[in-house]
């Protein structure tokens, strides 16, 4: 797109994408990264804007359609006031609103119980590309006073999560915080974490940058990383994904020199998880 590649075209593209209601809260850094790739390929600025929105939809928008954060917060506030069983039911109801987090609900009671069995309580957890998974904190083995840092690319999602964490209820015994962050460009500091969650995210990141999974895994400094892959497509079809992702995970490990790491696989009905210990 020679003419519109002029300086300023990328700024215009980013401004146009962020002006649309569906993408107004997306990290400008990720919008810029995707926009630069699409500008280089497209025949016009208009086409590049459309392609950028499509790509952002694939990596994020498709999972979180029409969030109703205010209503969800009210629902959580009322349920938390009723005590633990009602709180857990309400958390499950809200987690249904993110397609990827929703797929974990049928296996949630066993997911962390199995993958983290025998490891005691964690003190500092980082949840990368979190979606609504931080609402599953009550299912995680966390020490009292533990830190939990969650990040995803939506600023309104981070605001919602921080408001939920501040409600009296199941998050009160820990320090949880959510932030807007493009983990492709700017992964958070994980050097003090005793557990990093990278759940069903590597395939998403690799749609933008083929090396993203390897770069991210190499940049994570934590003794334990729980990595997972989806076992069905967003449309719900199961298409031999277990074998495909098992092969790509092992290829990824080979690329980052992880052959000596201890790997424990856990296959669930909807998700394939690997605990990496090093
Ligand atoms: C498949 S979902 C997984 C959500 C969550 N980890 C879970 O398993 O419930 C992928 C998530 O990655 C987020 N995401 C995509 N690209 C990202 C990026 N560059 N930085 C941070 N988050 C990103 C999306 O918004 C989406 O919530």
Any descriptors?
alpha/beta, globular, seven-stranded mixed sheet, Rossmann fold, 18% strand, 278 residues, 7 strands, binds S-adenosylmethionine, Helicase, Ruva Protein, domain 3
Describe the structure.
The protein is of the alpha/beta class. The protein folds into two domains: 3-61, Ubiquitin-associated (UBA) domain (Helicase, Ruva Protein, domain 3); 69-277, Vaccinia Virus protein VP39 (Rossmann fold). 44% of the residues lie in helices and 18% in strands. It contains eleven helices and seven strands. Strands 3-2-1-4-5-7-6 form a seven-stranded mixed β-sheet. Helix 1 (9-19) packs across helix 2, helix 4 (69-82) packs antiparallel against helix 5 (84-95) and helix 4 (69-82) runs parallel beside helix 8. The protein starts with 8 loop residues before the first helix and ends with a strand. The model has no long low-confidence stretch (mean pLDDT 94). The protein binds S-adenosylmethionine. S-adenosylmethionine binds next to helix 3, helix 6 and helix 9.
């Amino acid at each position: 797109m020679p003419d519109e590649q002029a300086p300023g075209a990328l700024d215009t593209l980013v401004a146009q994408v962020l002006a649309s209601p569906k993408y107004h809260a997306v990290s400008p850094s990720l919008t810029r990264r995707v926009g630069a790739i699409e500008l280089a390929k497209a025949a016009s600025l208009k086409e590049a804007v459309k392609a950028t929105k499509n790509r952002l939809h694939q990596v994020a928008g498709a999972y979180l359609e029409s969030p109703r954060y205010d209503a969800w917060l009210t629902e959580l506030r009322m349920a938390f006031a009723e005590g633990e069983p009602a709180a857990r039911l309400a958390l499950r109801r809200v987690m249904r609103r993110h397609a990827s987090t929703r797929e974990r609900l049928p296996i949630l009671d066993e997911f962390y119980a199995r993958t983290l069995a025998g490891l005691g309580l964690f003190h500092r957890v980082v949840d990368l590309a979190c979606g609504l998974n931080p609402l599953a904190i009550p299912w995680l083995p966390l020490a009292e006073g533990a830190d939990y840092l969650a990040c995803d690319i939506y600023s309104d999602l981070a605001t919602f999560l921080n408001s939920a964490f501040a409600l009296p209820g199941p998050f009160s015994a820990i320090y949880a915080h959510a932030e807007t962050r493009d983990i492709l460009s700017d992964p958070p500091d994980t050097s003090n974490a005793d557990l990093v969650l990278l759940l069903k995210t590597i395939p998403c990141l690799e749609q933008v940058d083929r090396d993203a999974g390897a770069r991210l895994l190499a940049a994570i400094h934590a003794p334990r990383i729980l990595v997972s892959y989806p076992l069905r497509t967003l449309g719900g079809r199961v298409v031999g994904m277990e074998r495909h992702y098992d092969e790509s995970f092992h290829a990824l490990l080979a690329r980052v020199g992880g052959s000596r790491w201890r790997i424990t696989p856990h296959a669930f009905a909807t998700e394939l998880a690997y605990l990496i210990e090093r």
